[in-house]
Amino acid sequence: MIVRKLFELWKYVEGLHQISVTCKDLLAKHDTMVSECLTAHYDEFFNLYENLLTSANYVTRRQSLRASKFPYNEALHFRSSVLKVMMTLLKKDSSKTIQMSAFHIFKVFVANPNKPREVKVILAKSHEKLLELLHNLSPGKGIVFLAVYLLVSSTLALD
Description:
One of its GO terms (molecular function) is protein serine/threonine kinase activator activity. The protein is mainly alpha-helical and 159 residues long.
C-alpha cells in the first residue's frame, strides 16, 4: 500500500530534507488522491502518522507536525489519539519549537465547535492541568499569539 511505503520512506530517510519535502509535496498537491487513500486507509494512515509524531528523532517529529497543514488536517482534529499526542508534546517535549507547533494543532481541537464526544471528555478531564500547562508555555511572539492563547485558555475554562 502506498501510504505505508510513504511512511516507511519518510522514517527511513528522516534526516534527508529533500525526501521529506517530496513526501510533503505529494500529500499537499494531490488532494483527490490523498482523500481517496485516506478514505480507504484512515486508521492505518493515522496510526502511522502518530508513530511519526512520537518518534525519538526531532526532525521526524518536527516534519510530522508541519504535515498537519495538509488536506487531511480536518480529519486529524477529530482523532482523540492525536489530541493526546499533542498534549504530551506540549507537556514533555524539550523543544520549544515542537511545543509551539503542538500548541497550534491543539488549539484547533479546543476551538472546534463540532468536537467528538471523546475529545470533549479528554479536554474536560484535563482542563485544569491544560490551563496550568498553557500558563507555563512561554507566550512568545506578539499580540496575535497572545489573543489565540487567551481564546484557548478561556475556551478550556468554559468547557
